[in-house]
Amino acid sequence: MNPILDRNKLNQLLxxxxxxxxxxxxxxxxLYQRARKSLHGGVPMLWMIRWAGSxxxxxxxxxxxxxxxxxxxxxxxxxxxxxGAMTGHxxxxxxxxxxxxxxxxxxxxxxxxxxxxxxxELQRRFxxxxxxxxxxxxxxxxxxxxxxxxxxxxxxxxxxxxxxxGSVDETLIVLDExxxxxxxPNNLGPQVDPRFTTKVIEFNDIAALETALSARxxxxxxxxxxxxxxxxxxxxxGYHEALRELTxxxxxxxxxDETHTICAGPGGYSASFGLEPDFLTIGxxxxxxxxxxxxxxxxxxxxxxxxxxxxDDADVGGIGGxxxxxxxxxxxxKATLQNVLTDEFYSQAIALQECFTDEVESVxxxxxxxxIVKRLGNRSEYWFRSTPPKNGGQAFAAIDHELDRxxxxxxxxxxxLMTPFHNMALISPETTQADVDYHTKIFREAxxxxxx
Length: 452
Ligand SMILES: Cc1ncc(COP(=O)(O)O)c(C=O)c1O
Fold this sequence. Notes:
Elements: H1 7-24, H2 26-35, E1 59-63, E2 66-69, E3 74-77, H3 92-102, H4 114-126, E4 130-134, H5 137-152, E5 156-160, E6 173-175, E7 181-183, H6 194-197, E8 198-201, H7 206-214, E9 218-223, H8 239-249, E10 253-257, H9 268-273, E11 279-282, E12 293-297, H10 299-308, H11 327-339, H12 343-366, E13 372-376, E14 379-383, H13 392-397, H14 401-412, E15 416-417, E16 424-426, H15 433-451
Parallel strand pairs: 3-15, 5-8, 5-9, 9-10, 10-11
Antiparallel strand pairs: 1-2, 2-3, 4-12, 6-7, 11-12, 13-14, 14-16
Helix pairs in contact: 1-14, 3-11, 4-11, 5-10, 7-8, 12-15, 14-15
The structure holds pyridoxal-5'-phosphate (PLP).
């Protein structure tokens, strides 16, 4: 809870913003009412109802760092499809490649030559020799976990408290207040209690890691190199070295999920900080927003996997997907990697993100707030607490839903979209200094409204 805030006042402000939201979005409201008659909850996918407004904004069109809604409101998009559109919306090179490929076949269950370019580029960026394709990062993680369990013949995996790796069943587990593992609240209809499949410990806790791995029953640790889904939580100095050393010591594979941490650089956090994972998974922005994901692994994994794989049953083994590796995704991925997620993009976007962070920090200082901003590459996030959390449990305890909702709604009502579920902002190739400055102005107004 945030001590300096007058909660009654915050509640009143929230109601006023809710009314403003209704007033500014009559067409979205009308469409939402119609959508509720055919779509469960009025949305095509469950999460779209979890925005700060009491109904979702319906989009008219999106381009670059902006989009407009059906009511004619224009927004700067710092959410960027929660990283799916980190490339900016519909980047020209990707759109051209899609338009070209679409004339030449979309999916065949056969490779086109271009996929080799993509494999070689993934090798170059991420340093792992062999690659496979999926349609979502969730699937990339699921498949890497299956391979790790198959090779090691160990039953368990290990994840960090309040991690998120997609809707992977085994990962929906957290620690309760006493530090006992439990199924994540609202884990919907799990086929198996995750306590049977998964060990969960806090990030940055080397002793707990060693205890968990020393039983030698863990096939793989699945980790984001910097946690991003309960806010940005950096590893403490030496943590990654210990993680690698202990996983090797106890024969456990290390799967690094770069789906969000690709914000750190062209080869993700792994390339920037010299990590040596056994598997690397990534999805979301790889193909400019067209569904595409990949997982890469070492020579050793490749050989061990091949020696155990019965090719006659490769299609029913639990790894794959009819549309995975389809020609459209591959064409989009090639164009995006070649022209959009380039070294130049990263240096420009990271510099602009530094500026975003500095400006938000200057407002926090001006109002003497016990808040901080955390940054990783072209991603940053403000926190309503005075010190950075060290792990998921601490981060979860600091969540202030009311304040989160107010900041989201206030900015949304003034033409800014932040990532839902937390106050995160990404910089795209098309985001400008003016966009960043406008955010600072609105952020300042929001702060002033609650503490002024
Ligand atoms: C780190 C990480 N891995 C995997 C995923 C799953 O991605 P998708 O929902 O596209 O499968 C997410 C989604 O937010 C994520 O943050």
